[in-house]
Design brief:
disordered N terminus, 2 domains, mainly alpha, globular, about 210 residues, Cytochrome Bc1 Complex, Chain D, domain 2, binds heme C
């Protein structure tokens, strides 16, 4: 009941920090995940914050508990397609996935901000993120991803601090239907390429 209350308050858009941390799995499980993550670190970074020289490798650190597990399963059953990740999950059991999920969601995310010259575009992105885009009936991103982009476990991922190039690629994939999700497909379908760019820059700098 308490959990439900916290969740519905977060959905109502209230500033509750640490909701994600409250449900982080126990440290023992995260430790097992740390061992299994060795193979992942060449792309997702030793600290889960990706690689500075390849922004298409997403950050996994401080992702909402449950989301990484769900994505690994989706890569494995083919409902989310990526040639690299398909190979990476082939040998993972559900238990491995749960351990990896616990590990990455326990790590702090590093926010590198955005370049000065991108600030104007990010500001345009902020308007949509917070207020939606009523002309096209697009709902505010923050109603599902949280006012500071921290996400809401287990379904709504963190988007703040994520590399803009990766976010941009995902929004295009939702828009053209190559990545499938009923909520995100209908939202991204209505976004212009320019709005996608603006939102991606905004969320990278969002804390
Ligand atoms: C050779 C590079 C590489 C390795 C190694 C790798 N990944 Fe990935 N991973 C990627 C790329 C690229 C993507 C983005 C796929 C896309 O664009 O949809 C990704 C995406 C993901 C996502 C989805 C993130 C999100 O925000 O939706 C998860 C979860 C993930 N990887 C976990 C892992 C785990 C766990 C391992 C180790 C078992 C691993 N990856 C190893 C390259 C890699
Ligand atoms: C009605 C709820 C809802 C709204 C509103 C919403 N999202 Fe999402 N979003 C989701 C869900 C659920 C997922 C997870 C999809 C999955 O499991 O594959 C998601 C996934 C994403 C991802 C992929 C994250 C990753 O790590 O791969 C991005 C980026 C994203 N949303 C951005 C946005 C932006 C930008 C907006 C506003 C224009 C927005 N979302 C509005 C529910 C929502």
């Amino acid at each position: 009941m308490k959990k439900f209350l916290v969740l519905s308050m977060a959905i109502a858009g209230m500033m509750i920090t640490g909701v994600g941390h409250a449900t982080h799995a126990s440290e023992g499980v995260a430790d097992k995940g740390a061992e299994k993550a060795a193979v992942c670190s060449s792309c997702h970074g030793a600290d889960g914050n990706g690689m500075a020289d390849n922004p298409l490798y997403p950050k996994l650190a401080d992702q909402v508990p449950g989301y990484i597990m769900a994505q690994l399963k989706a890569f494995k059953d083919g409902s989310r397609q990526d040639p690299i990740m398909a190979g990476m999950v082939a040998a993972l059991s559900e238990e491995d996935m749960a351990h990896l999920d616990a590990y990455y969601s326990s790590l702090p995310v590093m926010n590198i901000g955005i370049k000065k010259e991108d600030e104007e575009q990010a500001l345009a992105g902020q308007k949509i993120y917070r207020g939606g885009y009523s002309k096209l009936n697009i709902s505010a991103c923050m109603s599902c991803h949280g006012p500071s982009g921290e996400g809401i476990p287990i379904q709504y991922p963190r988007v703040s601090g994520q590399n803009a190039a990766y976010t941009e690629k995902q929004l295009h994939a939702f828009k053209d239907g190559t990545r499938k999700h009923p909520m995100m497909n209908s939202i991204a379908f209505l976004l212009s390429n320019e709005q996608i760019k603006q939102l991606s820059l905004y969320t990278q700098g969002l804390k």
